[in-house]
């Protein structure tokens, strides 16, 4: 009896299938379960003439075109968006908010764009246009490509051109036109070669099934110096291509290299993804224990990220269990995922193409129960899959679930329900057939429009290259004139350079001459000073005062050592000069105790270390004061050396004596003494003059009578400026 029922059920299914195939496709005006047929008219806004061949596309997959009367019928639902497009007017977007007939009044393109608007549009900078193209990338391929075409016409550099073609390739890649994406990524790279675009090109090759080209790009990138993050992406992409081409061991090697980099750089999402892909590849190669180990790792890592990533990984493991007939584990994982998917769908919309929709998971749970021959458990999940698929307009899953439900009823012996489920399945096949036909028509239209726009862009690029060629030709013609101008400028610059070098040479030569003169003057002063000092020693010895002579000679040797140490310096610290003149004055006072007393004072406000002074500059003035002023005075005189602050960067050194004065001293001198004194003072004046020329008036010397009324005494005022720069000997 059971066999008779089974044969009868098979016959009924066969008759039903023949009947389905004999049916014609329903007209678009047929009312559907959840929508209605919208009647519309497209006409010119001024003449009310109907417009034929207008494309009307709904976001739910419906499509229609206007006939010679401008009329159309399309299946829609409240809330759907219609895209009305035609070559003679701008695309119109209309949201369906009622079942009333629709009349669309349009204006021709030449009326829609007045001259001023066009000019204003031309003034939009490249950056704004390319940003608009990026904005419409995921919304409208046609709009995005229009903006890209405009950006190419505005491009004025290879970098901008590269960016425009990269965005164009991104648009093609998003809309799955991978061959065009490859072409435009390559154009972008011809303008500017960047790693990011090379990665996109390798991915586009892979999606376009140009596997060997993709592998070549990835392998070339592995040899480049890249950041850890990018290198991890490269190995992951290479592994994807190798896995697709069944080169499982090579794919696992590439994935593991990427995983090692991701672990080293602590790229957590990448670690999870690569563990999962290694598991999938091991599974595909038949290494189930290794696959199970890596799936466990990826699942543990995914649960630590977020609920969406965790559920995706859980469902991958469920697919692995399904492939290995571990149906109980599969069912457990899928049931755990249902609540999470519901929570995710409450926040975001999951596309029907995703593997993680509720309808697909209910279907797979029902299928797992069916394979376990637990038919009663399978039926509710398949029924729920049908409900979810209908709610989300997923005809593919709805069809598969109805077919599977028919098989479950059949194997459970419920043939009437099996027949009813099969009839529902055939209706779903009809709907899917209609939808696929519409999608094919839309895809053909889309491809045609894309091809037209691509040709336009290629034409723009050719025009741009031609313009560049003309520009380069003009540049070549201008180069000669520019070369002549630059040659003249270069000649003038060369003359200026020669003049500057000569100036520097003369300046250095002058400086060298000044240094030589300074050395010569110092060499003349030192013997004179030494001669006078030795005369003093000789006078002590002549008077048989050996003890005094020894003490004097000891102090004199200290003085001579300091003088000789500083003899090669143009400037020495002021503190050293103070020590030197203090020692010298002490020696002279030692010889002429009965002739004068002396004092040396330094203003406390002066930071002595901030000042430098030519060596042996003050000694000749002190020597003149003692030998030609105080020595001839009948009563005991006084020598005063005062160092005082004059301003923030200037000090004065006053050497004052109350001797017989310059006039009387000159009268007492012999002819030879006059000659020697004149020569000594002349040397000092020359030194000061040369030093001031070299160091910008650093030293100033003024000699005056101390008491003009009595014509007695002499005062020497030395003004010394601070020099913040470090004075160096050349």
Under CATH, the topology of the domain at 545-721 can be stated as: Heat Shock Protein 90
Structural class: alpha+beta
Secondary structure: helix percent: 55-70%
Biggest sheet character? 5 strands, mixed
What is the gyration radius calculated from CA atoms?
A: 52 Å
**Uncertain stretches of 5 or more adjacent residues:** 1-33, 110-121, 725-730
- Please indicate the percent range of residues in DSSP E strands (runs of 2 or more): 5-15%
- Mean pLDDT rating: 78
CATH architecture of the domain at 545-721: 2-Layer Sandwich
- N→C terminal distance: 126 Å
Q: Say which CATH homologous superfamily of the domain at 545-721 is assigned.
A: Histidine kinase-like ATPase, C-terminal domain
Number of strands: 14
SS field, number of helical segments: 24
Assembly level: single chain
Instruction: Determine and state the CATH class of the domain at 545-721.
Output: Alpha Beta
User: What overall geometry do the principal axes of the alpha carbons give?
Assistant: elongated
InterPro entries: Bact_2-comp_sensor_kinase, CarboxyPept-like_regulatory, HATPase_C_sf, Sig_transdc_His_kin_internal, TPR-like_helical_dom_sf, TPR_rpt
Keywords: Coiled coil, Membrane, TPR repeat, Transmembrane, Transmembrane helix
Protein name: Tetratricopeptide repeat-containing protein
TPR repeats: 232-265
